[in-house]
């Protein structure tokens, strides 16, 4: 019910008014359904408080905003004790039943199902449902999950209007674009029913859309701009609905598209041929000349030079023909804003002036820049963190209170918060808070970080196994990670418990420990490991991190095959491993799951020491570097990823390199198309025994089809060998193929189909499927 229809009756007794009158009593009258306590809770005016006419007006607005009231009056009475206020309301009735009239195409049950509503309710529980209109995250989530709109309560005007709108949408989807929907509320025994009257109108559908005169853009391109669709029996679109109103909007979209592309004199008209509900649509286009982008001037800039502000945008537009395109103008303005935002000038104003030369068919563009003053962040507010504690988010921010509002810092802050892996979405929204200051709102949407999994898994190393896994990220809202996993299979066992303390001792330091018990049965032997790993890592500068780790393991080799090579037979027995692991890394990726730009570098050094009972003696060095490039030249959306891996392991003190510390090249994470280890050193039986040296190059081209779904093509090449002399190009192993990547609540997953370029002993299949939980780069 609209606010102007309410009457505000205030009987002002001017005589004897004091400067601060007290509200002695508040009475609520006329309410049949909405309880007194809820109305009183909504009022800003309270008994015993000071009377304010402005506050009473706000009370009326607050009550109307609930949608529960049709009429509100406020009466004021002077009494000895003070001012008595009487709120007289006419509340909307409780709706216990919904009915439909005039619907022939759709039944009552079909409409109710599509609307997601109940048609009637047996028991009316007004208090419970009305008082549920308080706003809280828990309630909003519950109402979102709840499928049906419950009756037996007051339906707000907004809810009724939404139902009317939805009924119209349903009929338009069914091919009745001229449907009309009205409603009435019918009182019955103290409650009411809501009746929708539907005038379905004539069924109308589109058979064909024909374009005439479009020389520069294909009909398919233009049709993609339209909401109106033609018939397509291949995708079972047999009767796409027709609406004259929507068609006129579609024609406007096409006209705007042409003008954005430089066709400033374009003329578009349409004709509809009708026969028995069938409609053929003809769209006539006179494109006219295409205007070129002429001189581009920027005025008022004192902090950046012209070349910095335009970047390569004008050259890029020249490569595309040099035409006037609105997207180029908008990109130019965006580039200017971004540059100024990097130094805190976020209040920058740009005045665009376009001069059209009809004779030369050219557009002259002038951008007048008003630089303003640098803006500082006054306060940082965080919303949406119902589980996460504030400090977990604040410590990832790269903009702080009383500092300049720098766009690079905002962008980096969002990336760091997203890469924690605890949030579905992160938005950083600065908004003015003063003349030279802004407040920063960090709005996050938390994801479910607890994972309890029971199921089966398979890969080429462990084969089929059953697992039970419990992992909780953001443990108790602190950002810490705890995990417990139990996996068993005919050839595999992996039991572990781990904990990561993020920001140990309130420093940018991660402390991780894990206890594990693992067993893998290979073709020629079985290896079992039990031990404790610890890692202490610290971030420094912005993108760098160093770490120090230790590993204490007991390793048992058993079930050695009689036909195994002598090298594998020498591994039999128990070993004690005491390792020190050092690493240095730099990571500028924009998104850890599927990066589109940035790079990653990691250098790792491991030494096995003969201390505390250790029996192994070796040194191992690995260097990995990745680069991610997004196509900004043609703006195709393609992402090119490359990775190089170099590894070296050598023994000392007369020992040998343990089998499981060698490099197994080939398989899911190295060179696809080959079985695990089959692109490296192989014994006489065709079994991989690992290499002392490895060199691997990986290249991938990916394209995002959906927010959570990617397609890719790839090429892997490299080799594992014991001597550098063996790394001649003729010995290299390569694989290529196609794949898909998708993000699930559990983890990112990928499926690759790869072909090898050279078959080897023990791996003669020309191709191989790879299914992996986790990323590649």
TrEMBL record:
The record's subcellular location field reads: Membrane
* Principal subcellular localization: membrane
Q: Which domain of life is it from?
A: Bacteria
InterPro entries, A to Z: Bac_surfAg_D15, BamA/TamA_POTRA, D15-like, OM_assembly_BamA, POTRA
Q: Name one GO biological process term.
A: membrane assembly
Q: Which GO terms describe its cellular component?
A: cell outer membrane
- Pfam families, sorted: Omp85, POTRA
User: Domain POTRA spans what residues?
Assistant: 21-92, 204-288, 291-372, 375-447
Instruction: Please provide the record's keywords in A-Z order.
Output: Cell outer membrane, Membrane, Repeat, Signal, Transmembrane, Transmembrane beta strand
Q: Known PANTHER family for this protein? A: SORTING AND ASSEMBLY MACHINERY SAMM50 PROTEIN FAMILY MEMBER, TRANSLOCATION AND ASSEMBLY MODULE SUBUNIT TAMA
Q: What is this protein called?
A: Outer membrane protein assembly factor BamA
């Amino acid at each position: 019910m609209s606010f102007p229809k309410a009457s505000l009756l205030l009987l002002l007794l001017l005589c004897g008014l004091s400067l601060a009158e007290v509200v002695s009593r508040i009475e609520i009258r006329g309410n049949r359904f909405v309880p007194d306590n809820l109305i009183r809770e909504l009022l800003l005016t309270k008994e015993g408080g000071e009377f304010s006419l402005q506050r009473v007006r706000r009370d009326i607005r607050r009550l109307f905003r609930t949608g529960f009231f049709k009429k509100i009056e406020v009466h004021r009475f002077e009494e000895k004790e003070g001012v008595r206020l009487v709120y007289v309301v006419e509340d909307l009735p409780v709706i216990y039943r919904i009915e439909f009239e005039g619907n022939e195409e759709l039944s009552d049950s079909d409409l109710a199902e599509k609307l997601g509503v109940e048609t009637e309710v047996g028991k009316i529980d007004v208090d419970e449902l009305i008082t549920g209109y308080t706003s809280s995250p828990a309630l909003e989530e519950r109402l979102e999950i709840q499928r049906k709109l419950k009756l037996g309560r007051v339906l707000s005007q907004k809810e009724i209007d939404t139902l009317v709108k939805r009924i119209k949408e349903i009929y338009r989807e069914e091919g009745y674009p001229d449907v009309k929907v009205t409603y009435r509320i019918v009182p019955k025994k103290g409650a009411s029913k809501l009746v929708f009257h539907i005038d379905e109108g004539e069924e109308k559908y589109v058979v064909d859309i024909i374009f005439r005169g479009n020389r520069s853009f294909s009909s398919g391109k233009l049709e993609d701009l339209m909401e109106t669709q033609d018939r397509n029996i291949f995708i079972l679109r047999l009767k796409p609905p027709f609406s004259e109103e929507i068609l006129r909007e579609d024609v406007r979209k096409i006209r705007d598209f042409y003008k954005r592309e430089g066709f400033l004199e374009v003329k578009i008209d349409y004709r509809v041929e009708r026969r028995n509900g069938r409609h053929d649509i003809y769209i006539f286009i006179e494109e006219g000349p295409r205007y070129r982008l002429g001189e581009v001037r920027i005025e008022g800039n004192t902090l950046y030079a012209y070349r910095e502000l335009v970047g390569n945008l004008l050259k890029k537009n020249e490569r595309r023909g040099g035409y006037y395109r609105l997207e180029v103008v908008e990109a130019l303005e965006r580039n200017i804003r971004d540059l100024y935002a990097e130094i805190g000038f976020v209040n920058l104003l740009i005045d665009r002036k376009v001069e059209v030369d009809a004779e030369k068919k050219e557009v002259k563009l002038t951008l007048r820049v008003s630089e303003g003053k640098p803006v500082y962040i006054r306060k940082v507010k965080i919303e949406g963190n119902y589980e996460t504690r504030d400090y977990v988010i604040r410590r990832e921010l790269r903009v702080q209170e009383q500092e300049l509002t720098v766009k690079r810092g905002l962008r980096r802050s969002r990336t760091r918060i997203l890469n924690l892996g605890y949030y579905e979405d992160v938005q950083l929204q600065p908004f003015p808070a003063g003349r030279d200051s802004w407040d920063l709102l960090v709005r996050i949407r938390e994801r479910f970080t607890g994972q309890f999994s029971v199921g089966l898994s398979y890969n080429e190393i462990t084969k089929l196994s059953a697992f039970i896994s419990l992992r909780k990220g953001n443990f108790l809202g602190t950002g810490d990670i705890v995990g417990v996993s139990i996996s068993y299979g005919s050839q595999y066992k992996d039991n572990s418990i781990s904990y990561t303390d993020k920001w140990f001792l309130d420093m940018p330091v991660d402390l991780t420990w894990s206890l594990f018990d693992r067993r893998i049965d290979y073709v020629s032997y079985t290896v079992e490991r039990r031990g404790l790993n610890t890692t202490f890592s610290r971030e420094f500068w912005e993108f760098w991190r160093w770490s120090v780790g230790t590993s204490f393991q007991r390793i048992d080799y058993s079930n050695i095959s009689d036909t195994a090579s002598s090298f594998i037979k020498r591994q039999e027995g128990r070993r004690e491993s005491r390792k020190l692991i050092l690493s240095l890394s730099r990571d500028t990726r924009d998104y850890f799951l599927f990066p589109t730009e940035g790079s990653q570098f990691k250098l790792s050094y491991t030494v096995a020491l003969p201390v505390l009972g250790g029996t192994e003696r070796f040194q191992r060095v690995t260097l990995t570097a990745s680069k991610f490039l997004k196509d900004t030249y043609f703006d195709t959306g393609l992402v090119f990823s490359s990775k190089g891996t170099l590894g070296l392991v050598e023994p000392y003190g007369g020992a040998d390199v343990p089998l499981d510390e060698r490099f197994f090249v080939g398989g899911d994470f190295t060179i696809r198309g080959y079985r695990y280890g089959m692109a490296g050193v192989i014994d006489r039986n065709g079994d991989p025994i690992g290499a002392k040296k490895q060199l691997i190059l990986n290249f991938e081209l990916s394209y995002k089809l959906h927010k959570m779904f990617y397609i890719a093509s790839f090429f892997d090449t490299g080799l594992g060998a014991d001597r550098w002399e063996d790394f001649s190009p003729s010995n290299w192993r390569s694989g290529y193929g196609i794949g898909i990547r998708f993000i699930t609540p559990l983890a990112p997953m990928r499926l690759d189909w790869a072909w090898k370029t050279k078959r080897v002993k023990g791996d003669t299949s020309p191709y191989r499927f790879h299914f992996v939980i986790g990323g590649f780069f």
